[in-house]
Write a structure and sequence with these properties.
- The protein has 109 residues and is mainly α.
- The protein has a single domain, classed as Cytochrome c-like domain (Cytochrome Bc1 Complex, Chain D, domain 2), CATH 1.10.760.
- 55% of the residues lie in helices and 0% in strands.
- It is built from five helices and no strands.
- The longest helix has 20 residues.
- The two termini are 27 Å apart.
Length: 109
Amino acid sequence: MRTAFILSFLMAGVAGQAAAADIDMNAAADLAKATGCYSCHSAKEKIVGPAFSAIAEKYASDKDAVSTLSQSIQMGSTGKWGRVAMPAHASLKAPDLKLLASWVLASKP
C-alpha cells in the first residue's frame, strides 16, 4: 500500500514537470498581469487571495486540477480559501483559462 502511494506521488511529480515544460511561462505571466491576477495574488505570499505556490501545493495530487482551477478562474469561487470571494473572469477563453491554471499549478511551493 505504501509503495503504491509513493509511486503515485512520484508519477504526479513527473506529470507536473511535463505539464510545466509545455507552458509558455512568459505568456502566462503576461496574461496574469493583464487580467489582474496580481491584484489579489502573488507568487509566494498571501495578499487578498492565496499565493500561487499555496494553490499549487493544495492541488498537487488532484488529477483534475487544471480543470478545477480553470473553472474557478472563469466562474469565481467562494469559501475555498476563506471568506473573501474570487471574482469571475467570464470573458476569458478556454485556452487562456487553461494556460493560467497550468501556470499556477507549475508554481514552486
